[in-house]
Amino acid sequence: MPINIPNNLPAITILKNENIFIMDQQRASHQDIRPLRIAFCNLMPLKIVTETDFIRVLSNTPLQIELDFFYMDKHDSKNTAKQHLNIFYKTFDQIKHNRYDGLIITGAPVENLRFEEVDYWNDISEVMEWSKTNVTNTLHICWGAQAGLYHHYGIQKYPLEKKLFGVFEHKISDNKIPLFRGFDDTFLTPHSRYTENRIIDIQQNPGLTLAAWSEKAGVHVVISKNSRQIFVTGHFEYNSNTLKEEYERDLSKGLPIDLPDNYFPDDNPKIRPMVRWRANANLFFVNWLNYYVYQETPYDWI
Hints:
The protein has helices spanning 10-17, 25-28, 47-58, 82-88, 92-95, 121-134, 143-153, 199-203, 242-252, 278-294; strands spanning 3-5, 22-24, 36-41, 65-71, 89-91, 100-105, 135-141, 158-172, 186-196, 208-214, 218-224, 229-232. The chain is of the alpha/beta class. The longest helix has 17 residues, at 278-294.
């Protein structure tokens, strides 16, 4: 079963052209099945791009998934049309009385700010606190992971000397962790960030398990001891051109930016990038939905 998403969401056309099986609400209503309800907290400025990237990697499971998009309405979103938000998104106040099988909190381009300086910090803190009682499992991505580690466990983030940017090799700390069932001994994932969490801080916290890490990129995947919270500092969901577009955008702004590591063939930005993380990404999200959401959520949870 594919993802049940709102009719006319722009991602539908994009993904159908990629041969991704998407089910709209009309067709889904004819299936006698309870879908997994996933709340999606989209903090990224280009919300349509982010929606498309995540729907792509969530679509490779036999489970039917229903997505509820919501955003921080007290923050002025300048890069996504108000009409799109009004049609396809809800506010947190509109969904906070619901229960969800899963929650995804995306990254956000605010990592150089202290957490408390982010204009919606109190609001996202409320979301993360609410998730402990109203969500079976929460997946935090990039800045969302750093924010979650800070809110729930007091783990600090630290500035890097320069942007960590590229595709990096990772190792798994324990191949018995269900999240990595079927993975190779090492795997690739893109990263794009200016700050980091430190491995020693994760290892010294009794409530956390360092599940995957990289010699170059550091902390990648962290799991809470009760397995209800997962923190991912990289971007399994990135599409083939995301790093290319980020590189070109930084160049156009005159920002100091190196070529993304391990991305362009022969480090030549004129050559089409090689995608070597797609299979890992699909498997990661299938494992998350199966072992941490579907297998754990009560049938009558909603």
